[in-house]
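Consider this today:
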Amino acid sequence: MTAEADDAVGTRIAGRYQLIEQIGAGAYGTVWRAVDEVLNVTVAAKQLRISVAASPGHTSLLVTRVMREARMVAKLRDHPNVVTVLDVVEENNLPWIIMEYVPSVSLAEAIRTRGVFSADEVIRIGIAILEALAAAHQRGINHRDVKPANVLIGHDGRVMLVDFGVAVQGSDPAITEGPIGTLTYIAPEHFAGIRRSTAGDLFSLGATLYYAAEGASAFSRPTQAATIQAVLHDHPRFVRTPASLASVIEGLLAKDPADRLTSSAGLAALRSALAAPHREEPEHAGEQLERPGELPKHIGEQPKHAAEPPIELRESRLRRVLGGILAVVALAAAAAPWSVVYVGDPPAWIGAPAAVWSCFFGSWAVIFGYLFCRPDLLLISETTLRYRRDGVDHILTREQIDGARVRAGYLEVRLSDPPRSSGSPGSAWVRRYQVRSEPPCLDSSGVLVLCALGDLSGASAEQIASAARRFGNEEFAASSSAPTVPTAPPGDRGVTALT
């Protein structure tokens, strides 16, 4: 906790609720575990945080938002998948929402600590949240910010939808209809200025379930513009998710809200998927759930099957040792003229040639140190494939990869959307890769020969192939011919980074 939070511990709110510890914080609110000293029970107290520099108008807007959240959640107080509001009190002219306390972890945090969820777990989470959304929609409430951080997994197995801070009722005319929420979970129609509807919440739920099943966002890209473009036009690719669940998620992620699954259709599809015959599950998925909407009580503990650790391989030490020797020799050569000047009495004109000599060999010392002493690196993580060659990083995100395989001692990657024509975006780096005499190089079919395993110390084809399967390679691995590495024209060794 911060020093400010430490100072607040022990404070009594409205003369009744004693703050014990801070358990969560967001942009505008802090959640505390507190004790109701009248009833002697533990509760959660949500505090509105306002900057000292906030204008009166902004403060009034935030207070209105908090009160609106309390009223909307109160309408759902009997639903098992929504945290119950117990009271709203005022302290220092600011409202506090008093809620039931449920020891829990967010879905986002659970995925970070234990890896992706099994299909049955994702289905049960989807059923629980969809039932909560259906209840809200029946009362005219749109959540507008469904995402993994706003889904709680209780230690008792309960699944809850929280944070109705930006929720609205359809009849409220005072709500601004700008893009509200997290970019990767906002429905496409909302970027076109269409008023937020129940269908938007269902799209956000689909993106949330994709994240739980695949361990990565369906639409996250390196820039905000690319992310919005992906939300508007790209379709999710499934690597781990069985077909029965993938079809439901695709139905929730339909670009046209008219084609999107409704709450009732989504619930029926999820229940049908749950009752379907045995599905192939990811090896590191969590244990099966006991009943719809619940997770095992040990969800917060270390799972039996953790997410696969990243594979990191570096080149052998010989090249680095050689580079170090060359750098030292170049430094010695750069210093040689000045040692002569120091011990002897050379003519005055010798200073200029000595400076040129030192700059020349000093530059080579830096080049040797950078190119040889900084080792090549291959890193394969859950979401990124990275190769560093000659001091240049080549980075591919999971969304850019359509498959990866090891063939004839090379790691090959098939790009999901490779630039092919000379006038297309990215064609410059295509040409530069195509003329290299060694990896990385890109052929005309969009297959990137990323690196030779022989360049890396301790790299085995089996180890790299196993790690590469997380990007999908069943169809890609069917071919067994040797890779074709283009030959570079003399003197052309252009290189660029894939970012």
User: Anything to note?
Assistant: DSSP finds 13 helices and 19 strands in the chain. The chain has four domains: 3-100, 104-300, 316-373, 377-478.
